[in-house]
Amino acid sequence: MKRKLLGFAALSILSVGLLAGCGGGNSKKESSDPGDIKIWVQFSDETPEGVAWQEIVDGFNKENEGKYKAVTEYIPRSGSGGGYEDKVNAAITTNGLPDVITLDGPNTAAYAHSGVIAPLDDYLKDADMDDVLDSIIQQGTYDGKMYAFGFSESNVGVYYNKEMFKEAGITEEQLPTLDNPWTWSDFSKISEILTKHFEGPAIDMQIASNDEMLTYAYTPFIWSNGGDVVNEEGTKATDYFNDSKTVEALEFVQSLVKNGYTTISPIEKGFETGKYPMLLSGSWTIFDLEENYKDIDYGILPYPVSDTTKELVSPTGSWQLAMTTKTEKKDASAAFIKYATSTESSRIMSLGNSVLPIRNSTIELIKDEVSEGMRTLMEQNQRSGHARPVVVAYPQVSRAFQQAIQDISYFEENKDVQKVADTRAEEMQQAIDNSLK
Amino acid sequence: MFKKPTLKDNIIGYGFLSPALILLAIFLVIPVGMVFYYAFTDYYLLTPDARQFIGLENFQRLIKDPIFIKSIWNTAKFVVWIIPVQLGAALGMALIINKQRKGNIFFKVAFFAPVVMSLVVISILWLYLLNPNEGLINTLLTKIGLPSQPFLTSPKQAMYTIVFVSAWQGAGYQMLLFLGGMQNIPNDVYEAAEIDGFSKFQQFRYITMPLLKPTTIFVVLTTLISAFKLIIQPMVMAQGGPMNSTMTMVYYIYQTGFTDRMVGYSSSIALIFTTMIGLITLAQRKLIKEDN
User: Is A2 domain-assigned?
Assistant: First the structure.
């Protein structure tokens, strides 16, 4: 009897052991060296971003030899955005965060509010912050403190097909510039000419994308008209998102669909294959065009601006670096973040990964090395970059925004834009209230 | 000959079972218990330690959550449509293959192939086929003089499109089950019926259908349960849109939990979902028992 019991116990222990084996390798090997820091990044080391990153890390380690040493763990994101975030979330639950993590721009508020990341202001006094783009500071600031530091930037413009424009009879003089951007009426007029001439939508505005792209690319229309999604403190959406200025901007967007200038069911890669004369898209499309669609002779035009304010606004935002509150190596972590966001590091990142720089000095440094389109976006970013709202309940606010854009694009079902804005503003407000409780 | 198992036998038995039992406990029983508990807390993904018991607050919020209500309707709509469509298709395919004739192998492979393909791959494939501009389906429709359809971009059609694609994907497996059932029916029954002058349809109606009943019940049960768990097709093909018309319960659980980071809220939806499925399963079991 006793032997059988022992056998049972042995089997159980064996199976537990097996299970433990599966989860093994997670045991903490904290190095006692105060200068060794661990960094998690959301890309793989084989991508252009990873290669540029490793160059930056190597530079840091060389400069600080014997003092600090940074080690990167590459945790690529999966298509839907999981992978990396899942690992961070799991680490929060098990107290296993590294010293430095990367996070997407709109996550700043949630991570800061929850005490996952620590403010950086005390360490950034000698980091020449005046040189840093406003948009980078905006997206990394929560509650008046800088919590996260973007190491690359992005921007959106209107790509246009030069040949198709010529064919439709649009002259160089009619084209907008950064100094003299096109108003919504100008934009509609040119769209009308192109739509008639080519008997199809003039522009793919990615209005059917149903994801973060909508918040990212459509908020500038609202800002340009003097409206907003939420207030500056990120505590109120009602009276902001359903304000008359916001509604006006949304009505403009709706008119583009209604008049057939853009479409909710675009042809796949319509611009890239020369079927649409225009495309609203981010800096990453330059890379795609130059790699895969070399035949398209394109240029990049600035954002259309509101007729009333004529203020140029463009979207920004990308991944950032932040120090976790759990780290015991604050000086080393901050030193690394400062190094990775320096003029030189930003240069390596921008040229290596075709992203926009985060500092004015870097823009000066590389503007002759990049393509014309890239230069337009860099400059537009400098002049008019606007980060997305900093709110703790960002995922819900952003989704309500996306759904509002989607709602108005179904113009027959949703003729009353004010009503759409009211409903979605209330949704945002509820999410915000719940998150701040 | 049967000997009542002694305590010793029992212990040995459980000993051998223990690895499976422990796995089951860790990956099923304990998580289900945790969801039950989290449903009554305000667990936020980024501050797990600060979670507090908030009683029924999550459920009070749910009642007023229009997306949640819509997700229940959408799920119900899918379940109600997928069963006749998918089972009809499966039965039809099984009838085609059941006859000995040339080319059967081709049909078998063609009908069964979608089952072994990943749902994500299938969803992306159909996304291309259904594209309103250059998709094959719309090109064919316009060729035969019909208007091109928006399929996934119309809030009215999106869910039906997903029903169709899901049925196309899943019917092959049920076809196999029906086929197995059909081939178990002895041939002499049909021969006798033929001598008595039964038409083909009458044979199907009075012999095949009744004798397939156990198979049908099993197929309906499994389809029903799996239909409730719909998430991949609407996620990949329509992101729950347009206008939430393809937002299902499981998708909403995922979204509130992992995108919105409201683990507590998400758990309360999961709890309602589990309860619903549990009740349906119970009801079905009862119905079947009464039937037999």
Answer: no
